[in-house]
Amino acid sequence: MVPFNVLVIVCIGYVILLFLVAFAAEQRARIGRLGWLRSPMVYTLSLSIYCTAWTFYGAVGYAARSGLEFVTIYLGPTLVMVGWWWVVRKLVRIGRAQRITSIADLISSRYGKSNFLGVIVTLMAVVGTTPYIALQLQSVTASFAVFAAERPVGGAFEDMNSTAVWVAAGLALFTILFGTRNLDANERHHGVVTAIAVEAIVKLIALVSVGVFVVWGVAGGIGDTLGRIQASPIAQWQVNGGRWVGLTFLSAAAFLTLPRMFQVLVVENSDERHLATASWAFPLYLFLMSLFVVPIAVMGLAELPIGANPDLFVLTLPLQFNREGLALLAFLGGFSSATSMVIVAAIALSTMVSNHIVMPIWLNVMRPGASVSGDVRNVVILSRRISIAVILALGYLYFRFSGGGAALAVIGLISFTGVAQVLPALLGGIFWRGATRVGAACGLITGFVIWAYVLFLPSFGEGGVLSADLMRNGPFGIWWLRPQALFGFSGLDPVVHAVFWSMILNSFGFFLGSLLSFPNPMERLQGAQFVNVFQLSSSPRSWTRGTVEAEDLLIMAQRIIGATQAQTLFQTAAQAQGKVGYLPDVTPQFIQVLERELSGSVGGATAHAMISQIIGGASVSVQDLMAVADETAQMMEYSSQLEAKSGELQRTARKLRDANEKLTELSIQKDAFLSQISHELRTPMTSIRAFSEILRDGSEMPQVDRRKYSGIIHDEAIRLTRLLDDLLDLSVLENGQVQLNIQPGNLQDVIERAVASTVVGGALGGPRPLQIRRDPPSEKRALLTDTDRLAQVFINLIANVQKYCDAPQPALDIKVQDTEAGMVVDFVDNGTGIPKKSQALIFEKFSRLTDQAAAGGAGLGLAICREIMTNLGGSITYLPGQGGAAFRVTLSEGPV
Amino acid sequence: MSDPGLPLFLARKSYRNRRVADAARVLPLAGLIFFMLPLLWTGRENVGGSTGYAGLYLFAVWFVLIAVAFVLAPRLRRLNEQEAEDAGTDGSV
To answer: What is the pTM of this model?
Structure first.
């Protein structure tokens, strides 16, 4: 036998080795030589804390009792890791993006940084983990006892309790030394992780060695082993279907929600690529860990005396065959399993306790002066250290008072079921935007209460916490509330019963609570960030610009994350803003970054609370929310904006095209006019010059000729003057310099005047008589306008009819009527009208549709009319579709 | 014109990548089905219902799952990086 003292020495030596490994890794990390410390293999091995002493010893015991059922505990995690693309990938991405420190922090951050949820999850985790820690202490002491049973009387260890005390104290010391070195819980604990990786290798080698010894040393190889399995008491496939499915589900759920698993899986993950490796390597690890479980169980049942504890076959089997070295290795394997689990669980729980329970209380107590007095950094570290000690003490007390009676596997399953209650809130939180804080609280509390009532409290035994009468008949004799037969489901296995009801009612509460409640802005913001973590490229701004001084923030940050780190952070931010020195502008972005940094140390809810204490409660602006909360709406808004813009562009392009056509046409018109005006000016000038030369040179000219020639010169001069007058008039009108002579008048008088003057003109120039049809009563309207100018417009219009109307019997209708726009006077003739393509141009200067009757006009008439009407506050437009050419003169109601 | 022998498909590579992600999603479901399969054997007294052979079956399924995950892992790692780049999310704010 191994002398007990040797065992103790080996054990202490192993612990010292772990200390050295952890210390060396910390040193390496400190000088920046991370190298293999960050390899995917170390990450995978650190996940192996899933395999605790329960797995190491308990799996064999489990197999000895129920055959292959033990394997479900590994199948769940295998499926989760193989399906990492679904859940784990998203969890890790969220964990890194939000700087999540624990599972309580994840739940709290997701549901609007609600500390209430953080507290619930923390309490559940502590209650669920304490029995588990007790279980580890129990397994270590039990394994000590195996060796101690053989020792000579009078050794150092009198009872199991003192062993447990020593183990618990040693673990607390290690955890405090290496687990609270960095305040930033979001940074990797290189020392701890490396030590755990070493322990993972030790326990794998130990179990595989025992397995190989059993298969090839005790039995005669694989074939013989198979034969022995077939001949053993567990040869029959005796798996209960409910348990098979239920336990696989439970282990998968616990793999995601156990605080220690979350710690290594998400928080300690330094690189997402490691997940890809772990997706096959971790299942392989589990595969190897469980490969020899059944052979060891079968051999133990066959070779060891009846009544031997199957939970310790891994140890007792080698001892039975006097393989002391192997037994020692197996002992170290079990020791490693227990210690690594306890260390990580204590780190994870202490982070949760300090961030979600101690810090909020401390902040509340210190509220008036949190930013000016007291060193938060020390408070956090101290609270974490105390939490570690308290958690281990709790585990010890549980072990002490539960008496270590229950089989290992049962305690493990109770613990799994407890922590699995977080699953609905967790999965709902990362996949469903509609999940709310109220829903999460409902689900968590429902699940936790049911778990406690139907599984946890009954586990203390009848008459333990719940009385035997209550267990049998239900509270107050209500039969359907019996703890182990809720709603009358009495045939189920207790664990399956508990998993079924707690998860169903938990999910139901979560779902119903979420549907019926309304999330606050912060919840919606966080929900969008979590659910859309793969799509959201930029983080939303959750702080509105406050009036806070950067210096206050620096003082606070220094207290939390340390002076150097805080200064570097501020300096970098200032540089990014293009400033020199340590104090950046307090922009929302900067506060966002700072909050993330702080939440890496004290958790999301606390960091948020501390910053809001300084900033003054500003949180989410509606704009921020709008910007991120609904990406679909954002996209739709964007595309409708684009659409509007492109519509506007199209309209502008159309206008431009029209304008361009008009300009081109105008340019042609202008060219034509220039040549025409030259012609118009030149023709009279030529006549004038020619006839004046004749008058000058022909001295002996008859009086008749002289008079005739002088008359021609005079007429031509008048024509020139009229042309120039028109041009001048137009120029004056266009520049708005015209002097209007506003006076009261009568529309009928104005029309009368216009008709009279044109009839005179018409008699002179028009070969055909123009018939004018009027309705005198309707013309009796009072006016307040420049009647002379208005008459000029009318004259022009009537004259145009005389010149251009191509009907054999020209006729003009003058109609007066009222429209919405005001009083209108329509001039409609019976000619062919103006072609559509010319309608847009007739009011332009110099436009003349035909050269035919160029009697005196230079194409300025309508342009002048338009300018006059504009000046009078009215308008003149061409009225299409009236049979002939039709012009509408609109008169404004009042004076100009 | 393109080679008539090749089916017409643009961006074949990204199409393949998305199918790898699909495979990764289906893998755990397939595993679940195969792991639950022994439940249908209960009640049979022959070798299929024995611990030994059921164990061999389970470990075989398990090993195949690990092997497939091993084959998929490098592709998924690249795909994940690619997606992270596309989204511009690097987690460091």
So the answer is: 0.67
Question: Is the sign of the CA dihedral B12, B13, B16, B22 positive or negative?
Answer: negative
**Dihedral sign, CA of A86, A91, A94, A96?**
negative
| pLDDT tens profile A135-164 | 888 888 888 888 776 544 433 444 666 777
Q: A-chain residues within 8 Å CB-CB of B18? A: none
Distance from CA of A273 to the nearest CA of B (A): 6
CB A380 within 8 A of CB A335: no
Read off the pLDDT of each residue in A655-672 and give the average, rounded to a whole number. 86
Q: Is B90 helix (H, G, I), strand (E, B) or coil?
A: coil
∠ CA A435-A436-A437, rounded to 5°:
140
Q: Quick check: A273 and B77 CB within 8 A?
A: yes
Neighbours of A362 (CB within 10 A): 18
Alpha carbon A156 to its chain centroid, in Å, reads 60
Give the separation between CA A462 and CA A470, rounded to whole angstroms: 9
Degrees (nearest 5) of the Cα angle A516, A520, A526? Answer: 110
Let me know how long chain A is: 896
Question: Of the candidates B62, B76, B81, which has its C-beta nearest A78's C-beta?
Answer: B62
Q: Judge whether A85 is closer than 8 Å to chain B, CB to CB.
A: yes
In this prediction, residues A744-756 reach a mean pLDDT of: 85
SS3 content of chain A, % helix, strand, coil (to 5): 70, 5, 25
Cα–Cα distance between A67 and A60 in angstroms, integer?
Answer: 9
Rg (CA), chain B: 20
Three-state secondary-structure class, residue A739? coil
**Which of B17, B29, B45, B51 to mutate to test binding with chain A, by most A CBs within 10 Å of its CB?**
B51
pLDDT per residue as tens digits for the range A554-597: 777 776 777 777 778 888 888 887 776 677 777 777 777 888 77
**In DSSP terms, which residues pair with A816 in a beta bridge?**
A825
Pairing of strands A771-773, A811-819: parallel
CA distances from A503 to A499, A506, A510, A770 (A): 6, 5, 10, 101
Contact A722, A799 (CB under 8 A): no
The one-letter amino acid at A467: S
The pair of structure tokens assigned to B30 is: 């397939």
Compare CB distances from A75 to B21, B35, B69 and report the shortest one's residue: B35
pLDDT for the residue B87: 57
Q: Which residues contact B17 (CB under 8 A, 6 or more apart)?
A: B75, B78, B79, B82
ipTM of the prediction: 0.86
Candidate from A226, A277, A592 with C-beta closest to B73: A277
Residue A26 token pair: 């910390």
| Token digits of residue A413 | 């399953």
d(CA A38, CA A190) in angstroms, rounded, equals: 9
CB pairs under 8 A between A and B: 130
Annotate A766-777 with DSSP letters as a single string.
Answer: -SSPPEEE--HH
B42 burial (CB, 10 Å; 0-12 / 13-18 / 19+) is middle
Largest CA distance in chain A: 172
Q: Which tokens sit at A262?
A: 């979350």
Q: What is the rounded (10 degree) CA torsion for A493, A494, A500, A502?
A: 180
Model confidence at A121, pLDDT cuts 50, 70, 90, reads very high
The vertex-B29 CA angle with A88 and A98, nearest 5°, equals 15
Residue of B50, B70, B72 lying closest to A237 (CB–CB): B50
Specify the 3-state DSSP secondary structure of A786.
Answer: coil
User: How many angstroms separate the Cα of A190 from the Cα of each of A29, A135, A193, A674?
Assistant: 7, 26, 5, 92
Q: What are phi and psi of A772, to 5 degrees?
A: -110, 125
A538 close to B (CB below 8 A): yes
Q: Are the CB atoms for A328 and A7 separated by under 8 Å?
A: yes
